[in-house]
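Take a careful look at the protein record below. Let me know whether the structure tokens fit the sequence:
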Amino acid sequence: MTMQQRKQYVEASIAKACQQVGRDPKSVEVIAVTKYVGIPETAEVLEHGFKHIGENRWQDAKAKWEQLGNQGQWHFIGHLQTNKVKDVIGKFAYIHSLDRISLATELNKAAEKLGIVQRCLIQVNVSGEQSKYGLPPEQLYDFAEQIKSLPHLQIEGLMTMAPFEGEAEDTRPVFGGLRELRDELNKRQIFPYEVRHLSMGMSNDYEVAVEEGATFVRLGSIIVKPAEEE
């Protein structure tokens, strides 16, 4: 399929998933994950109207961001080491992988130096898989209490990664679990604002994630494939 056909397919499937649960498709944003492709493919993604670009590692994103960073909104969606904060701060509109106090402190300090407020999502390991990063769900509220006083961080939502399942339906408890955590976080009013976003769902399971309330879906292979896969 062409890029335009892929975009139309994704938009249609998101609209169908939203219809199933009475959601407005405009409430779901697609993050095009470009970590496996270069500058030309990333430029093509932007040219086809994708507004959000997702990258996992600064060393892979650097050249793309330097050439295309003024286009769209860039999301850092991979595990972030504290010593890499200086590289990503001020460049990515959202950081999706906030999962420990040391990282929160470093982000706040770096954002203060730049005079900005960094938008972040807290990563939660809802599935409990040892291979996944993120806070255990039972630690979320204590973590939120610890970081709520950091003035240069704005907590925009929660993020999780579901296990890769043969049947997308099997991921539903993970996505539903993240939604419940967000709703409880808002109920407790730990932050003086609404925590709105749910970053969940990838190319193999995003329709289920949308049905469970995803506001950001992180789509790679279904949108943009490395050249050797074409």
In short: The chain is about 40% helix and 15% strand.
